[in-house]
Amino acid sequence: MDTKLALSRVCRCWNVLARQVLFQYIIIRNGKHALAIADALKDCADSNKLGLSTTRLEIALEGVHIWTEEHTCAVLRIFESCPNLVCFSTAFSTADPSVFQSTRLINALRFHGSLKRVELKTDTEIIEALAEAVPSVQVLWLWPCRRQHTAVVQRTLTFPNLHTLISEYEGGTYMRGLTLPVLRAIRIPHELHMPSLHVEDVKFLDVHNFSRILPTIHRWANLQTITIRYFELTNDVYPWSECIPNTSVECIIIDGLQRDLSTLRLMGYDLSALEEKLKVLSTNLFQLISTFLGLRSLRFLIPCQTMTSVFAGEHLRRIWEKWLEKCDALMIILEASQGLEEFSADEYQVIDPRSLHRKLAWNYPA
Fold first, then answer.
1. Do 364 and 310 touch, CB atoms closer than 8 A?
2. Residue 229 gets which letter from DSSP?
3. What pTM value is reported for the model?
């Protein structure tokens, strides 16, 4: 913070630049840091008003902390100095939300009409507080804390403007108590956690156990992108016979490729069990492109390095090669995102079938 203040005072030109860039994103690392930021923004409030440029505020406590009432008040002062906040986040804090009085902080956000995105390490009481204080939030990311309440839902919580929900939160009963009338994109850990929504309006769906959604996929009339986990494609044959061919889905993302079949070998699976899993994989892959008739692109999230056993490599090569040739014949564009940096940036590179199947049959020589 001191460095940012120094840069902002070099000249008028740099002062304007500092307000637009240097203070756009503020991270609070600990209680002492919160006090320093609050004081710095207060000192500049009358002249430079640096807090006006802040659009993202993140509490990212690292390690073990002593958090006091003074620290909470400092964050509240930061809120007052940053009236144009668009995003508030506690998702990357190692401390649970009770440590830094998250519920109280969320209640204070009710005066920030510009707030559109909230990323929270969460619990049931925090979701309730958010619905009361910021019902107009548009993007919500929920990350579970270590200690969760198991309260039963007493009422429906409505987020009338929420169009994107990303949740790793396991509070299934509580999630089903949410009403999201304009939701367009959803990522949840289990289909049983599905909140109340209009499925015909959803365009992006990422859910574990996709096979259980498949028989009702015709109800998702405007669905454009779905994510499927690789290990699900190897577990059991999807109920394809119960599925009406779909023409709305244009993109399928295959995630979890780091969970290679060779891992099963290490877990004690014999060759016959692996062969059966490979047959399941082959069936699901070919049925996938036969069912989603409007498919234009397939995207693969590929780890940087993964070792494959000789057995898995030989058989996987044949499966991937034949399937990717079929995709190419159907003019389906193949794209790959490799490594954490590309994953995080949502970057995909178009890749030819031959290069892709080499990556998918990891480290087995051509």
1. yes
2. E
3. 0.86
